[in-house]
């Protein structure tokens, strides 16, 4: 059987085994776009993948059975072929009847004639299984692409929300600063308090100046009196013993 005919048979097998699922698989693979698909699209694709995976499991089991049938049939034919020489000797020696030999030969010929069909069934089962494997791989890749695109979209959404929150914070701070600026420029109460503080400071400074002027004659008189005392009472002139002790101890004499 040629390769093209084999693929045609495989296509018929897939159509037979898949039924409506085959159309769903073809449509899902052809139309699914991970960048624009919705979660519902992803769920439908995942459901199709599960169905295809179940078919693949069945196809693997069928292929294993067909392969085992071919292995057993070949082993049986090989064993019977080896037995032909022994059977011929026994037939010549009259140890076995021709009817038995003919029955044996009929079974051997039937098995040999059946072997190509078994081999073809094994090949068809393998082709069907491999085609299903390709479909499952394609669907798996589509799901992986969707999940990657979804993750990327979620990251972009999170970044956009973070930028939005940042801009909201910045706008709020600008609003607060604008309010504070308005208070500094337009609050009459703050201006009145500032002017009142300056006025009180000026009044205090004026009072200090007046007090200093009034105190000046007293300071001058005290200075003159100290000069007079220093002239009339020179240091250590007629100092008594008590006054001397007080002076040396840095204590001024007590006044009456």
General description of the model:
It is a single chain. It contains six helices and no strands. The chain is mainly alpha-helical and 256 residues long. Helix 1 crosses helix 4. The longest helix is centred in the middle third of the chain and has 89 residues. The chain starts with a helix and ends in an 8-residue tail after the last helix. The N terminus is likely disordered.
How many helices in DSSP terms? 6
Gyration radius, in Å: 59 Å
Element-level helix/strand string: HHHHHH
Query: Shape, please?
Result: rod-shaped
The structural class is: mainly alpha
Question: Taking all residues together, what is the mean pLDDT?
Answer: 78
Low-confidence stretches: 1-7
Task: Offer a quick outline of the entry.
With about 260 residues, this protein is mainly α. Helix 1 packs across helix 2, helix 1 packs across helix 4 and helix 3 packs antiparallel against helix 4. The protein has six helices and no strands.
């Amino acid at each position: 059987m040629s390769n093209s005919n084999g693929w045609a048979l495989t296509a018929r097998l897939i159509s037979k085994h898949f039924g409506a699922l085959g159309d769903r698989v073809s449509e899902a693979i052809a139309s699914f776009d991970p960048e624009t698909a919705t979660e519902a699209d992803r769920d439908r694709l995942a459901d199709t993948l599960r169905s295809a995976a179940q078919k693949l499991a069945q196809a693997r089991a069928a292929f294993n059975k067909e392969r085992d049938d071919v292995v057993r049939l070949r082993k049986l034919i090989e064993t019977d072929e080896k037995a032909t020489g022994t059977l011929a000797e026994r037939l010549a020696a009259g140890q076995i009847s021709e009817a038995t030999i003919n029955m044996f030969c009929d079974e051997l010929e039937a098995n040999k004639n059946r072997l190509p069909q078994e081999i073809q069934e094994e090949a068809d089962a393998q082709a069907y299984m491999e085609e299903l494997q390709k479909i499952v791989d394609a669907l798996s890749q589509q799901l992986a692409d969707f999940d990657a695109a979804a993750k990327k979209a979620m990251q972009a959404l999170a970044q956009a929300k973070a930028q939005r929150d940042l801009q909201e914070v910045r706008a709020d701070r600008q609003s607060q600063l604008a309010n504070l600026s308005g208070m500094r420029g337009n609050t009459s109460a703050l201006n009145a308090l500032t002017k009142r503080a300056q006025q009180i400071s000026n009044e205090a400074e004026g009072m200090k100046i007046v007090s200093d002027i009034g105190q000046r004659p007293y300071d001058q008189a005290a200075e003159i009196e100290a000069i007079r005392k220093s002239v009339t009472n020179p240091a250590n002139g007629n100092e008594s013993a008590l006054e001397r002790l007080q002076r040396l101890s840095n204590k001024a004499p007590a006044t009456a």
